[in-house]
Amino acid sequence: MRIVIAPDKFKGSLSAPEVCAHLEKGLQRxxxxxxxxxxxxxxxxxxxxxxxxLDAAVGSGFTRRGAVVAGPTGDAVxxxxxxxxxxxxxxxxxxxxxxxxxxxxxxxxxxGPTAARTATSMGTGQLIRAALDAGCNRIILGVGxxxxxxxxxxxxxxxxxxxxxxxxxxxxxxxxxLAHLDRIDLSGFEPRLKDTRFVLASDVDNPLLGAxxxxxxxxxxxxxxQQDVELLDAALARFVEVLARExxxxxxKAAEAPGAGAAGGVGYAAIAxxxxxxxxxxxxxxxxxxxxxxxxxxxxxxxxxxxLDEQSLLGKTPLGVARAAAAQGVAVIAVCxxxxxxxxxxxxxxxxxxxxxxxxxxxxxxCIAGAAQLLEQLGTRIGGRxxxxxPATASTKEDLRV
Length: 402
Description:
Layout: E1 2-5, H1 16-33, E2 40-43, H2 53-59, E3 63-70, E4 76-84, E5 87-91, H3 93-96, E6 106-107, E7 110-111, H4 113-118, H5 122-133, E8 138-142, H6 153-158, E9 162-164, E10 183-185, E11 197-201, H7 214-218, H8 226-247, H9 250-255, H10 266-272, E12 277-279, H11 281-288, H12 291-294, E13 300-308, H13 317-327, E14 331-339, H14 343-348, E15 353-356, H15 364-369, H16 371-389
Parallel strand pairs: 1-2, 1-13, 5-8, 8-11, 11-12, 13-14, 14-15
Antiparallel strand pairs: 3-4, 4-5, 6-7, 9-10
């Protein structure tokens, strides 16, 4: 019997590879109890383009690489990316993420207004340069969890662009400083980018500016108060105006493109300057992890994430995996920390059943702390039910109910 485990991370407790490992341990234990001795488990850590994308790449044969880059406050951090042949996967959070903000940038444990105004995406640009040094000319940029609202100006700075005020002085880092932008010097811009293709892995369809823009929608999550939101939005508008003088009208058009507001506006720089193609994150990850090919001959797919809810149904990892499995007639069940979906909603989304850690431990804090052991228990339960409900030759969702 062939089982494919393809979950996202359980945020705050386990990475996707850890979820795979603990589920498999429980499955094997349950299968042995049920006298199934030929259980073939395939682990495929997946993600939706945000945090966890790097783990998904490494789990699919990419090799981890590291580079010292500027973190969101400019302090040096060691950030990882992944390489396979001429292709690289960059997880923006690894270089420019909220989780990298130092204690001094936090207020009561959350990003403060100073961080909102000054955080930079420069380290992500430096990671792109490191990928170019590694011989890559196709780069997947997974965005999510970013600390910055700089329109991707930092990315461009990390690639050699200079942002100058009216006196010819280089601007300090961060979105707020763009209010004083007078000229962008691209003379030192990385020449290898002309031969590099970019994919922006993001489900965010917000434009760069306005009521649905990067500052208004995502700025408050990064510590921006209302006055900061207004300042940042105006600064980003100035960025668009000056960039248009340098590269033409496509800079204006890109500001309105779906996804330009992703990752504090990094989507904008990627679309306007790097000519990136935006694609849904889960589609990109399922493609490079080769999930479709690995589903062939599977009897069951187990997917999941920390919280299975209405947001999951908008294209997050479990739904993407369920759709891929449905295309091949393979049954899917979901495992999660907690679920707010009704049985009808779960079935309509393609899940035969849903197993939640809260079924075993109702206290959410204890669920998070003990997720590993609880996942093994759920895996044991699932493994033990395979023999009772499934003939060894089952190969379609009509044959399988656990």
